[in-house]
Design goal:
The chain is of the alpha+beta class. The two termini are 41 Å apart. 42% of the residues lie in helices and 22% in strands. The protein has 2 domains: 25-148, OB fold (Dihydrolipoamide Acetyltransferase, E2P) (Beta Barrel), CATH 2.40.50; 149-204. InterPro entries: Phage_phiNM3_A0EWY4 (IPR011088).
C-alpha cells in the first residue's frame, strides 16, 4: 500500500512539473531563418494550439497560423508558432501576433551574417504530435552565448512555493489541533467499548 501511495504522489508532482514547464516562459537564443503562414486544422492536438487571433472568427474548423523558423548556434532547428493568447490560458495576454510576425521577418539573417534573437515562448515542440512552442516576444541580443535570467519564471515559482508552504503549515496545524484530538477521542471510545464488551462476556 505504501508503494501505491508514493506512486500517486510521484505522478501528481510529475504532472505539476510538466504543467509548469509547459506554461512558464522560456528563452531560446536563435537565428531567424524564415517566417511563413500556413493553414492548420487542429484535431486531436487542439489542446496545444491557442485561439484564433483576437477579433477574428474563432469558430472556424481551420485557420491560418504564423510560423517562425529558427536555428540555434549548434545547428538545432526550432519552429515556433505565433498565435494570440488573448484573455485565455496561459495568461500572457498576447494580442500582437501580426506585429510580432513583422518583427520576426525584419530580424531574419543568414549564417554568414547572423543576427541573434532571444525568443520568449511557452510550450513544447513535438514532431510526432505536430505541436509547436508559441513565441510571445522577440529581442535582439549580442550573440548566441548571452545569458538570460528567467526572472518571471523564478518569481512565479517562488510565489507558488510560498503559497504551498503556507497552506501546508496551516493544514498541519489544523490537523494537529482539530483532527488528531478527534481521532484520539474516537480511539479512546473504541477502547472503552471493547473493554466493556470483554467485561460483559467474562462475567457470564
Amino acid at each position: 500500500m505504501k508503494y501505491v501511495k508514493w506512486t500517486f504522489i510521484a505522478l501528481f508532482w510529475l504532472l505539476v512539473a510538466a504543467f509548469l514547464h509547459y506554461t512558464l516562459p522560456q528563452h531560446d537564443v536563435v537565428r531567424i531563418t524564415d517566417t511563413y503562414e500556413k493553414r492548420v486544422d487542429p484535431g486531436e492536438n487542439s489542446l496545444f494550439w491557442a485561439q484564433a487571433d483576437t477579433g477574428t472568427n474563432g469558430t472556424l474548423p481551420n485557420r491560418d497560423v504564423f510560423f517562425i523558423q529558427t536555428r540555434k548556434d549548434d545547428g538545432e532547428i526550432i519552429v515556433y508558432r505565433n498565435e494570440d493568447t488573448g484573455w485565455g490560458w496561459p495568461p500572457y495576454f498576447k494580442f500582437d501576433t501580426s506585429n510580432l510576425q513583422a518583427e520576426a521577418a525584419d530580424l531574419k539573417s543568414t549564417a554568414d551574417n547572423p543576427r541573434w534573437v532571444a525568443v520568449r515562448h511557452y510550450g513544447w515542440r513535438n514532431e510526432f504530435l505536430t505541436i509547436f512552442p508559441n513565441a510571445v516576444g522577440l529581442k535582439q541580443v549580442a550573440g548566441p552565448d548571452v545569458t538570460i535570467i528567467p526572472w518571471t519564471a523564478i518569481v512565479i515559482l517562488v510565489l507558488l512555493a510560498a503559497i504551498y508552504w503556507a497552506i501546508r503549515v496551516r493544514w498541519k496545524r489544523f490537523w494537529r489541533s482539530r483532527v488528531d484530538p478527534m481521532l484520539e477521542e474516537a480511539g479512546d471510545r473504541l477502547d472503552q467499548g471493547s473493554h466493556r464488551m470483554r467485561g460483559m462476556f467474562s462475567s457470564k
